[in-house]
Amino acid sequence: MYKNIFFTLLILGMAFMGVAFVFVKSAVTGYSPFVFLFYRFLIATMVLSLIFHKQIPKVTNTAIKTASLCGIPLFLSILFQTIGLKYTTVSNSAFITGMVVLLIPIFKMIFYKKKVKPIVWISCVVAMTGLYIITLKNGLKLNIGDLWTVACAMALAFYVLQIGKYAHEPSPMARVTIIMVVCTIGSLLGGLSTPGVNWFPQEYGFWKGLIFTSLLGTVYMYAVQSYGQRFIEEEKVALAYLTEPIFATMAAVFLINEKVTIHTFLGGTLILAAMFLSKIKTDRLKQLVVKVRHKS
């Protein structure tokens, strides 16, 4: 029961994240990514601190350590994605970020010595073909924005695995609040180390996108994921990530009239197909084939 509830809530979070792609791209077009991220995580930290203020005093040194181990890859993933959105389209960014679905089982094999099913390797080939098609419009080269987004997908895979590793530790909401603190500090340090940063943007669109992204794309999304992974395994979370590129592309088309090129459409379709393919339960598929043969 809890699995289905949190999976549904996670899908809703992916819808918010998909729309947030559009707002983030619009907000960082003329400003430093560090400024947007600083305010984004600062607002998220304050909101979570108010909502879960009773859990905060119970935080232990162990909780701070585990939150830091989760916060660093999350901060890097969102930073890389935000930088990438300055130089690539929303649809490209969403589809490439979606490759996290394939990276999670591969990283589990490399770092946790878990077996990877052959279907995952086949999916990787399909996904890389899709990525190849997306790059055709750039002369078979990933543009700088796409490269930043590939780095985002890698860091995001680490984050999902770290959250899964510490999901059953006490005070999950206090932990996610500390994760937001880590991201806030990282954004502040990045901004302070960048010369000429405008810390007080005057554009309404910047603040509108910031509020939506902070509350729905950050507070809601990461609180649900952090607590939900007590009941949902990493692969199931990865399955939810399948929907994010769809929501993001729809938002880009309807909200900012972004044109989806044939290369992005075909390449994105292959990446999406690879994600679904990687989730096929081969054992059940074999059983189905046997049943069909038996009936015939």
TrEMBL record:
* One Gene Ontology CC term in the entry: plasma membrane
Q: List residues traversing the bilayer.
A: 5-24, 30-52, 64-83, 89-107, 119-136, 142-161, 173-192, 204-225, 237-256, 262-278
Q: Where is this protein chiefly located?
A: membrane
Q: Which residues form the EamA domain?
A: 9-135, 144-277
Keyword Cell membrane listed? The answer is yes
Q: Report the subcellular localization.
A: Cell membrane
Give the bilayer topology.
Multi-pass membrane protein
- Keywords, alphabetical: Cell membrane, Membrane, Transmembrane, Transmembrane helix
Task: State the SUPFAM superfamilies in the record.
Answer: Multidrug resistance efflux transporter EmrE
Query: Which InterPro entries would you find in this protein's record?
Result: Diverse_Substrate_Transporter (IPR051258), EamA_dom (IPR000620), EmrE-like (IPR037185)
Name this protein carries in UniProt? DMT family transporter
Q: What's the source species for this entry?
A: Flavobacterium gawalongense
